[in-house]
Structures are given as structure tokens and as C-alpha cells.
Amino acid sequence: MQIRKAVSTDALGITIVNVYTWKTQYTGLLPDELIDLRIREIKQNSDKIKNRIKNGTKYYVVEEENCIIGFCSFGESRDEKYKEYGEIYALYLLEGFQGEGLGRKFFDLAIAYFKEKGFDKFIVKCLIGNPSEEFYKHMGGKIIGQTQIEKFNFKINENIFLYEI
């Protein structure tokens, strides 16, 4: 397995991992209509990711047999309340590849970036009830609050994990 910096042609693979992971991890936590909408809008979401990569958002992918099986995205916090922090925006691995240390490797890449940029803290937002919450706790995160975002007219409740570098 190889982790590398994503290029714009990885956008569709990243989007497929994102959508598939939503389906396998979030069913029962989010309305089926929201998950189905993400599936239907795979092309539009792929185009958004392609533009983000072209505009410098940090994306890394992990490949197995030339197929993207996971990705991580990070940068400066998008949350006004935590604007002096870094943020891991997304970290997704296909279900069959979880538990192999890849999430930790993505964390290490993000931490190196945050240190380089002078951040001594970063946040991760995670859907409440997501099985990945245990991973974020294992990585040393402390829940410091909750937030609610709206995606496609649905409200999503997330825990905010804080990490000190």
C-alpha cells in the first residue's frame, strides 16, 4: 500500500471512497435520503474535490493495486471558533482496510503539516455515533464541544475533537 499526495485525477476515486464509506458507516446514523443524494451527486462532488486539489487543499490518498482505498484532507481550521488551529477535514478508509495503521499514517502526515505551519493544536469533527469516534479518542483526541452543520438541507450533529501537538 502506498500513501501519496493526491492529484486532480484522483478526485473521482476519492469521491467513490467517500460515498461508499458514508453508505457503510453512516447508514442508520443519517437519513437514507441524504446518503442516496450523495450517491446521485457523485460527479458534482468529484468536480468539487478536483477543484480543491487544484487550488491547493491538502489531500493524500492510499492505494492498493492502483485503486484508491482511502484518503485524508487537512489544512487551516474552517471553523471561525478555532481559526488558530489546524483541522483534519476528512479521513476515510474503506471498511476492509481499517485497523491496519493507515489512519495513524494519515494523522502523522497532517501533524507534520500542522507543525510546519506553526499550529500547536488541531481539531477533527466527527459525526456523533460514527464508529470512528473510538479511533479519534485512541489518537488522543478530547471532545471539546459539538457542532451542527447542514448538508443538502439535512442537519448533521458532530463532536469536535481537540488535539495538542
Note down, in words, how this protein is organized:
- Helix content is 36%, strand content 35%.
- It has 165 residues and is of the alpha+beta class.
- The protein has a single domain, classed as Gcn5-related N-acetyltransferase (GNAT) (Aminopeptidase), CATH 3.40.630.
- Strands 1-2-3-4-5-7-6 form a 7-stranded mixed sheet, with helices on both faces.
- α4 links the parallel β4 and β5.
- α1 crosses α3.
- The chain is globular and about 40 Å long.
Keywords:
Aminopeptidase; alpha+beta; seven-stranded mixed beta sheet; 165 residues; 5 helices
Secondary structure layout plus pairing:
Elements: E1 2-5, H1 11-26, H2 32-40, H3 42-54, E2 58-64, E3 67-76, E4 86-93, H4 102-116, E5 121-127, H5 133-138, E6 142-151, E7 154-164
Helix pairs in contact: 1-2, 1-3
